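ugh ok fine here u go
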Amino acid sequence: MAEYKLLLEHSDDTAYRTLDGYRKKGGYKALEKAVKMERQAIIDEVKASGLRGRGGAGFPTWIKWNGLPKEKVGKKHYVVCNADEGEPGTFKDKQLMEETPFLLVEGMTIAGFATQGDAGFIYIRGEFIDAAKALRAAIDEAYAAGLLGKNILGSGRDFDLYIHMGAGSYECGEESALMSSLMGERGMPRLKFPHAPLPTISGLWDSPTLINNVETYTCVPFIVNKGGEWYQTLGAATKNSRGTKIFSVSGHVNKPGNYEIEFGTTLNELLEMSGGMKGGKLKACVPGGSSVPIIDAEMCGRAVLGYEEMSDVKSMVGSGGCMFLNEHTCIVSFIWRTAMFYAQESCGKCTPCREGTKWMLQIMERIVAGNGQPGDKELLLEVCSQIDGRSFCGLGDAAAWPVAAAIRVFPEEFDYFIANGKSMVKSSKDLMLVP
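structure:
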């Protein structure tokens, strides 16, 4: 079992947060190399690396980069970083921004060179004050050193970088809603391809726009500096997942925190890294953030961390928010709290999500309160089927998947709640998720 550290290698070193400290660790060597490369050559290195988006979808990064027009026709090009990180259970981007801010700044600058970007915007979750302060200091140092702004490193290329604080809306983690919020509009999703142009053609202010996640951009300096073929060697045991991935491990473990591992590591190995179970045996795991389908202990034993491999246990890598639950956890109350979150965070733009998340929550509340009725499981699954794939954006899917998976994997717990009624819930303590 090996634990690989690239992005978090120096995250415990406070000197790494200064430009001088970052450069002593090899920082900005990738940018110095990139300014001498052709734009397409940078994109080709990203393609050769096999890097996929680390925000949750796992979309090949190079396709987005290659999708922006090769020649500018009057409009500016923008580079946007999705640093909203609203997925419950996920906190990796927060640590990256707070402790390795220059990795993100350098990665976005390289992306700007590759896509002819005029300016970049880092859209940060409103509660991440420390992350915003760290990035503000890093950006200021980069400008002072000629690493941002006009004629970067004498290359004749310009790139500006700005920070925008969100207001804590989960919906604004969706890329089109993020762009709407960034432009001062209500944070709601837009029509998507094929009904509307891709962001790479018409995004921010109807201009070509590249959008990637924090972790995705922070991988770029390593890829440019060491080469795409080198990055391909990490995760080679998987079907099509390359490099390292940071998993935010929480729940009933002895050592919660962020763990950077090579794709192909098993879920049980990740559990071992995080100190093993606390308070009881392993019962279940939500491996990629609250929207990812839950799996039981038997599935955990077969789970290999890779985008395609996780489908073998009917779950996903997601954003990497890995929550381990021990044998004392009530799955029904856990899913009730999950349903509550998504009902509250629905932006209300489309009927399936706006109404469906409320219906799921009402049924879950009825079951948890001891008033469950025969057929409630089937009714929940029917509501899930009417939301999944039918909402305006992915929030509806994110709300439906956890409920449907919990009923599929732990049907007996729902049956027991419904059959025993109020005898299951004697006080509010019975709804606690910890022993």
